[in-house]
Amino acid sequence: MHKGRKLDISIIIPIIIFFIISITSIYSAMTYLSPDNGNLVLKQIIWYIIGIGLIIVLFKLKNDYLYRNAWFLYIIGNILLLSLLLFAPEINNSKCWFVIPYIGSFQPSEFMKIFIMLILGVMISNFRDNTDHPSTREEAIFIIKTLAVVLIPSVLTFLEPDTGSVMIYFIIYFCMMFTSGIRLRWFLILAIILFIVLSLVLGCYFFAEDLFVNIFGTDLYYRFDRILDWQNGSGLQLENALAAIGSAGVFGHGFNNTPIYFPESGTDFIFAVFASNFGLLGAIILICTIIWFDIRLINMATKKIASRDKFVLAGIIGMLMFQQVQNIGMTVGLLPITGITLPFISYGGSSLLSYLILVGIILNISNEKEREYNI
Questions:
Q1: Measured in whole angstroms, how far is the alpha carbon of residue 143 from the centre of its chain?
Q2: Domain layout of the chain by residue ranges
Q3: Residues 343/344/350/355 CA torsion (nearest 10 deg)
Q4: What is the rounded distance in angstroms from the CA atom of residue 164 to the CA atom of residue 182?
Q5: Amino acid 371: pLDDT
Q6: Is the dihedral of CA 83, 87, 88, 92 positive or negative?
Q7: Secondary structure of 117-172 as H, E, C letters
Q8: Strand partners for 105
Q9: For 87-128, what is each residue's pLDDT tens digit?
Q10: CB-based contacts of 322-326 (< 8 A; 24+ apart in sequence)
Q11: Which one of 1, 161, 239, 312 is most buried, counting C-beta atoms within 10 A?
């Protein structure tokens, strides 16, 4: 490894804890999963090992290599998303994955999140460097350009359909743009526009169902129904997950002793599996580890680091915190069920590899010496 570069233990230790929690939870979840899925624990371990290999590669390449190739990666990502719509098999009424024989499935939208962070980091940094005091017109043009960069993969991903990933694209966008230094009036304008659009869509859904289906299709109508399931506290998935968590007590039912079946136990509802096995104490340990990891990233972002790194960190922090809050919140009935997984814990090769790539980027940032930048 390059002389003078070292691994940040405050980043590595939470990842090790996440790995242990992930493996034990997936093992417990396999009780109710079909044998056709194979040994998910072994697969998750293999994905972690591959991810560690990617971290080592990124640690040697450094982030500058990614920034130089950001546009290339972004274009490749969009080509993969388009190829999904054209050639991928339909799985569970979605075209979200390429199926690779003997290996598993590959989900391009997971890596598109990284590509969006990289390209926005480059664009925002270049804009800041080239315009000391941007006019309103210059900011408007810049916003249109960056928004177009996010809208292209968002449309392709929405058509799969994968609403959860689209939400994350825009969370990344807003977090990075908020730290870019543009005038706050743009966020107020955007909030007003979103409020008007959502009001029209919801009004159509509640008062003109036939028109809603004709315009948006039955798939989006079904997604709204899932939100209503959350509001009503109904649905097999949520009810059984709440029963498993609620009956666990302080110490839980014990390892590999999930008392009741609920769908997506190894992915979307992995928190319910862990909490039912290890109770309130286990849940507190997991949540404290998540908070520890997030605070470390926030502290890193407040240091004097390169502007591109600062903007990318903002995107990473926004994405991770949104997914953590959304996943745990939907599991305990506080937020809508959106199909968003818990980072580093839920089973999934593509998602896990994407998170570990981000860890490689984070470790590179933590190794940057503190020096003055125009930020």
A1: 23
A2: 9-180+222-366
A3: 80
A4: 27
A5: 41
A6: positive
A7: HHHHHHHHHHHHHHCCCCCHHHHHHHHHHHHHHHHHHHHHHHCCCCHHHHHHHHHH
A8: 99
A9: 988 887 788 889 887 777 889 999 999 999 999 999 999 998
A10: 322/167, 322/168, 322/171, 323/168, 324/290, 324/294
A11: 312
